[in-house]
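Tokens in:
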């Protein structure tokens, strides 16, 4: 049997959202339509060999670790089927970059796993979801494609690089440092970078019941930042803290002092930046750097590292 089947997994989001009027682009309710409804809105996909499954129905602002765990296991199960060429996952935009990064770090799949989404609900006057879904299927069917990517607004982003950078525009995502993988033009995938590769940590790493995963929180440096939030997290039993610093991961004296107190008590601490792109340099005498990872991806990396410690 040829490997030409594309599996579509629905998780909800704006792409499956509905509003009372076609002119309402923000007052909608996410996660209302099933993935089969989304496919029905894209007639050209009828010629493709597709299989659709509704995994969950979530507004992605409510994404959780239990859903991540279930999604990773489901994706792995379908990837192991020889007839499957790739997987498309419909998702909300709010936490899409987190879920995509999590899946890539856990699975680093040899077949393409393509996330897509929408900034407008399905009932909008001009919805963007159908085109994004069409493009995502083309990417998932591309020979030689690998890894977890995001197909959105005609561009294909590496899961390790992609960030949501705009709250409203239909081209809401960017790749850090402009590192695009490909563009989708009239259904044709034009490669302009490289497909993501790597070695996943594996499903065994995330097998622990989600309620027992390490607690990792993000704190933000800003004018007037002090250590009270850090000390509150210590009292709550935090296991790791990502500091979203200013600029090159800089921290106020008071916040850094509190973070060093946390580190001395066994809490893992790393510095990221609240800037949209760019690495945090690792320098002697400073708290550990998260490298080029933004705060939310650094949080995932720290969770996976702490899970490795049992």
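Residues out:
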């Amino acid at each position: 049997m040829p490997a030409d089947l594309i599996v579509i997994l629905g998780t909800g989001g704006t792409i499956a959202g509905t509003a009372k009027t076609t002119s309402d682009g923000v007052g909608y309710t996410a996660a209302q339509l099933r993935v089969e409804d989304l496919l029905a809105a894209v007639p050209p996909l009828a010629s493709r060999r597709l299989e659709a499954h509704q995994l969950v129905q979530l507004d992605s602002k409510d994404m959780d670790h239990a859903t991540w765990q279930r999604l990773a296991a489901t994706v792995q199960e379908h990837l192991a089927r020889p007839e499957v060429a790739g997987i498309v996952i419909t998702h909300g935009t709010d936490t899409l970059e987190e879920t995509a990064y999590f899946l890539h770090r856990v699975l680093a799949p040899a077949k393409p796993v393509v996330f897509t989404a929408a900034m407008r609900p399905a009932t909008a006057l001009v919805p963007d979801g159908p085109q994004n879904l069409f493009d995502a299927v083309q990417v998932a069917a591309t020979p030689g494609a690998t890894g977890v990517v995001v197909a959105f607004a005609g561009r294909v982003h590496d899961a390790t690089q992609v960030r949501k950078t705009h709250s409203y525009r239909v081209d809401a995502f960017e790749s850090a440092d402009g590192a695009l993988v490909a563009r989708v033009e009239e259904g044709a995938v034009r490669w302009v970078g490289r497909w993501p590769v790597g070695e996943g940590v594996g499903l065994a790493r995330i097998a622990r019941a989600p309620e027992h995963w390490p607690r990792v929180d993000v704190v933000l440096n800003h004018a007037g930042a002090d250590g009270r939030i850090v000390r509150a997290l210590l009292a709550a039993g935090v296991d790791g803290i990502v500091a979203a610093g200013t600029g090159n991961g800089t921290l106020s004296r008071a916040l850094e002092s509190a973070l060093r107190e946390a580190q001395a008590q066994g809490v893992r601490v790393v510095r990221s930046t609240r800037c949209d792109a760019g690495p945090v340099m690792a320098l002697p005498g400073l708290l550990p750097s998260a490298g080029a990872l933004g705060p939310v991806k650094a949080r995932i990396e720290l969770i996976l590292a702490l899970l490795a410690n049992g």
